[in-house]
Amino acid sequence: MSVRRLAENQPDSFIPSQDTKAFAKAAVKKFPAGKQASAVIPILWQVQEQNDGWVCEPAIRWTAETLNMPYIRVYEVATFYTMFNLQPVGKFHVQLCGTTPCMLRGSEELKTVCRNVIGGQMDVTPDGKLSWVEVECLGACVNAPVAQINKDYYEDLTPEIFERILEDLRAGKKVKPGPQNPRHSSEPLGGALTLLNGDGKAKSKGKASLRAKTTAKKKKPKTLKAPRKPR
Question: Within this chain, do residues 104 and 168 fall inside the same structural domain, yes or no?
């Protein structure tokens, strides 16, 4: 993983909103006394949400003071996890998976789309709408190639579909997250096959057969009658 550093240009201060203060207070209460440092990741995430999608240096200092942590420990967390953006991003920030399954399914072509439509990694378009970065596995390998845009996943992408999504987002149009082909989630494109015979028919023998088997299991064994005594 490449070295992650804070942006060169930083704001003078970070003023937490009332929502961020309330979130931080609630996050700390979830952990035992003396373990407030465990809330550092959710608080940094909330800070990023307030700060237009990135974590600035003054926000790291505020988080450290709020949790009574050494500044360097919060800095280490913010610079280690790629979920935290260390410089300004666009309104729609694209995280494009470049790990092996996505690469084999066409992520290199999607990178070309990003370069053509947006620019270099972490560049922000002049209108402030788009930015992008390559990330490690997004955990949706069966739907490769995949991109996460803000909080939504866009799967089964092609260069043409991906470029259309970016342009629609820039234009303020609604876009559909999830698979960009006919499948609903991550089932095979041709539909489920595991419960079918070779001829395409279902393997189930029907309710009547199942009921008969169940009834047979419940039948009590016959009791033997004692032989009659001779007169």
Answer: yes
Query: How far is CA 18 from each of CA 13, 21, 22, 124, 137, rounded to the nearest angstrom?
Result: 16, 5, 6, 29, 35
Q: What is the pLDDT of residues 171-205, one digit of tens each?
A: 999 999 999 988 877 777 777 667 666 665 666 55
Q: pTM here?
A: 0.75
Domain residues for the domain of 48 are 18-80
On whether residue 151 sits in a domain, the answer given is yes
Which candidate, 163, 183, 179, places its Cα nearest to that of 171? 163
Are residues 97 and 165 part of one domain? yes
Domain count, the chain: 2
d(CA 85, CA 83): 6
Q: What is the pLDDT of residues 155-177, one digit of tens each?
A: 999 999 999 999 999 999 999 99
Parallel/antiparallel/unpaired status of strands 92-97 and 130-135: parallel
